[in-house]
What we know:
- The protein starts with a helix and ends in a 30-residue tail after the last strand.
- The chain has a single domain, classed as Beta Polymerase, domain 2, CATH 3.30.460.80.
- 24% of the residues lie in helices and 28% in strands.
- By secondary structure, the chain is of the alpha/beta class.
- The protein is globular and about 50 Å long.
Amino acid sequence: xxxxxxxxxxxxxxxxxxxxxxxxxxxxxxxxxxxxxxxxxxxxxxxxxxxxxxxxxxxxxxxxxxxxxxxxxxxxxxxxxxxxxxxxxxxxxxxxxxxxxxxxxxxxxxxxxxxxxxxxxxxxxxxxxxxxxxxxxxxxxxxxxxxx
Length: 148
C-alpha cells in the first residue's frame, strides 16, 4: 500500500512527525511535519514513490509561517500533507530542482506571503504587479492605526 511505503520513506528522514492520517476526516492518508530545510529530501522521497506536488501554500501565524505541501498519486488514491514551520526571519528552501512545477507555487507563496525560497531560479511576483510593496495574505496586511 502506497501510504505505508510513504510513511517508511519519510521516517528514514527523521522528520518531526510522520503518521497515518484519517482520510475521511482530513483528506490525507499520511501527515508529516518537517523542518523547511528538509523539504528537498522530502520532495525526493515523494517523487521516488511516484507522487506529484499537488499544491503548496502557507499559513501566517503571529510568530511563524507554516508552509503546507500537498502530494498525491495518480496510481493509487493516496494524499500526503507535509507542514514545515518557518521562522518569519528565515528563508524556505526551494524544491524546484525536484519538482519543476514548484516554481509557480513558490512564486505565488512569495507574492502573497513574502516568503523567500533559497535556491529558487526566478523568484519574482506572479500575480501582483512587480512593483507591489505588500503581501496581501499576511496577517499584518492593511493593519494601520487608522483601521483600528
